[in-house]
Design brief:
Blueprint lengths: L2 E9 L7 H19 L3 E8 L4 H9 L4 H18 L6 E4 L3 H16 L3 E11 L4 E3 L17 E10 L2 H13 L4 E2 L1 H12 L6 E2 L1 E2 L15 E2 L1 H6 L1 H4 L9 H6 L4 E5 L3 H15 L7 E4 L2 E3 L14 H8 L1 H11 L6 E3 L1 H31 L2 E2 L8 H22 L3 H22 L1 H6 L3 H22 L4 H11 L20 E2 L13 H11 L2
Parallel strand pairs: 1-2, 1-11, 2-3, 7-12, 11-12, 13-14
Antiparallel strand pairs: 4-5, 4-6, 6-8, 9-10, 15-16
Helix pairs in contact: 2-3, 6-10, 11-12, 12-15, 13-15, 13-17, 13-19, 14-15, 14-17, 15-17, 17-18
The structure holds 5'-O-[(L-methionyl)-sulphamoyl]adenosine (MSP).
Length: 521
């Protein structure tokens, strides 16, 4: 079985996760489920990034030790991923021993190799991002990543000799043009950081204590990015007694990150790996951000929205459908209560829900709920629909394979719309009146078969809806798999339910918009 190793960033457990942080994980889970459906041995890693000054400060404010704070937050994170039914294979915490000992060893080794050296650092420090910037990197005198105030600071520190590897990285970019997706992000990294000449990276701190100590110089703690990035390999047992997972899964096939942290993953991470003599991940995909009408989510604006109340009120499937559909490949998307309610009512209730209900209703009325076997009595109309669906499925696969998830969803909804159109074209109620049995059977066959196909296509991100459709149609287990999608000869002797249940109940628009607004904090 071919392997597929997929990672999310490890999240800072500084506060509750909002829908933006949940997005990377939903995306990762969708890709994992798709890959599994396509026969891969897919392995998904997630976790929490628990060291650093910010965590220390948050814990202090809460009157807790950093360890108490991160223990509580890691549990909260797991609770949320359980609620969201995230099928992760491992959850790494950077305070776990399996991580800490290996990171300390790696630091030592890099020092011995001469890749890490001691010096003094003076620069502009952004506290929330825990990153130093040079004067040139600042944007209007502020942090180029988060736009907040920076402070001039000086300290003794260890540095990683990035310059030594810059040419190799440039060559790597050149030889692997699809290493960073989308291409615009790669060009940005290349033009803004590699071309002007890479600065060496500060990899230790003396200004705080909550981190992994440098073994030979314990007043230094290891700078959070060298610590954080290595999670992707320590979780696989790199540098430990049992590195069988490392042998099996490394290099990663896909590492998902938000656009704000692509610099760390696209530049420093491959260089650390080069220094360790390890293969570089196959692809890094930088996705955009979920924005609100008035810009970024922030507590001070009171526009932060969390996954839990949305899931509780509208269900997991609708929540996932919305955030995946609204976020185009690599670009930002906007969350508005209006668009959420609209997509729910139009896409889910009208387009998909009605297709199922109409089909089951007609089938019960005309044939007592039974579909016998394939036929194509409507000739042209049937063949056109079949060709459309086969083309559409190939397109959905292609979009999934290149991680254009919102396109894969849009294409699936094209198939839903095309199937609804087929009902209008064939007018089964007329066929019934005119007693055209064969034609009517053929229409019903095609409707049930297309619904079966649609249910399988949505299964990576709408598991429950998928199962509810397949259950109501009484599709046997062996016809619920991805490999049964590509032809029309599959179903026979199907008896659909007599009591269809509504997939998505229509929302009262104004009331729900207000309800969602009320969820914002
Ligand atoms: N701890 C680092 C990552 C280390 S990985 C070795 C970190 N953590 S974070 O919690 O701040 O962010 C985690 C992820 O959430 C990032 O990929 C970030 O882009 C993503 N998002 C945070 N807000 C977001 C939105 N509003 N929308 C989409 N993703 C967002 O960075």
């Amino acid at each position: 079985m071919e392997k597929f190793y997929l990672t999310t960033p490890i999240y800072y457990p500084s506060g509750k996760f909002h829908i933006g942080t949940a997005y990377t994980t939903v995306l990762a889970n969708t890709i994992k489920r798709y890959k599994k459906a396509r026969g891969y041995d897919a392995y998904l890693l997630t976790g929490t990034d628990e060291h650093g000054q910010k965590i220390e400060q948050v814990a202090m404010k809460e009157g807790k030790t950093p360890q108490e704070h991160v223990d509580k937050m890691a549990e909260e994170a797991k609770k949320l991923w359980n609620l969201m039914e995230i099928e992760y294979d491992d959850f790494i915490r950077t305070t776990q021993e399996r991580h800490e000992t290996v990171v300390a060893d790696i630091f030592d080794r890099l020092m011995e190799q001469g890749d890490i050296y001691k010096s003094e650092y003076e620069g502009w420090y952004c506290m929330p991002c825990e990153t130093y910037f040079t004067e040139r990197q600042l944007v209007d005198g502020k942090c180029p990543d988060c736009g907040r105030e920076v402070k001039k600071m000086k300290e003794e520190a260890y540095f990683f000799n990035m310059k030594k590897y810059a040419d190799r990285l440039i060559q790597f970019y050149h030889d692997n043009p699809n290493f960073i997706l989308p291409e615009s992000r790669k060009n940005e990294l290349f033009n803004n950081f590699l071309k002007p000449g890479l600065e060496d990276l500060c990899v230790s701190r003396t200004s705080f204590d909550w981190g992994i100590k440098v073994k030979k110089d314990p007043k230094h703690v290891i700078y959070v990015w060298l610590d954080a990035l290595t999670n992707y390999i320590t979780a696989l047992g790199y540098g430990s007694q049992d590195d069988s997972l490392m042998k099996k899964y490394w290099p990663a096939d896909l590492q998902l990150v938000g656009k704000d942290i692509i610099r760390f993953h696209g530049i420093y991470w491959p260089i650390f790996l080069m220094a360790l003599g390890l293969p570089i991940p196959k692809q890094i995909y930088a996705h955009g951000w979920i924005m609100m009408k008035d810009g970024k989510m922030s507590k001070s604006k009171g526009n932060v929205i969390y996954p839990e109340p949305l899931i509780e009120r509208y269900g997991l499937d609708a929540f996932q459908y919305f955030i995946l559909r609204e976020m185009s490949f690599g670009q930002d998307g906007t969350f508005t209560p209006e668009s959420f309610v609209e997509r729910f009512n139009f896409d889910l209730c009208n387009d998909l829900g009605n297709l199922l209900n109409r089909t089951i209703g007609m089938l019960n009325k005309y044939f007592d709920g039974k579909v016998e076997k394939y036929c194509d009595a409507n000739k042209e109309l049937d063949k056109t629909l079949e060709n459309y669906a086969i083309g559409s499925i190939a397109q959905v696969e292609n979009e999934f394979d290149t991680y254009y998830i919102s396109n894969a969803i849009a294409e699936t909804w094209n198939l839903v719309a095309r199937t609804n159109k087929y009902i209008d074209e064939t007018a089964p109620w007329v066929l019934y009146k005119e007693e055209k049995q064969e034609e009517l059977k053929s229409v019903m066959y095609h409707l049930v078969e297309n619904l079966r196909k649609i249910a399988i296509l949505i299964s990576p991100y709408m598991k429950h809806t998928s199962n509810r459709i397949l259950d109501q149609l009484n599709i046997p287990e062996n016809l619920r798999t991805w490999d049964t999608l590509h032809t029309y000869d599959k179903i026979a002797n199907i008896q659909v339910t007599k009591t269809p249940d509504v997939l998505f109940a229509r929302l009262e628009k104004e009331q729900e918009i207000e309800a969602i607004k009320g969820m914002m904090k």
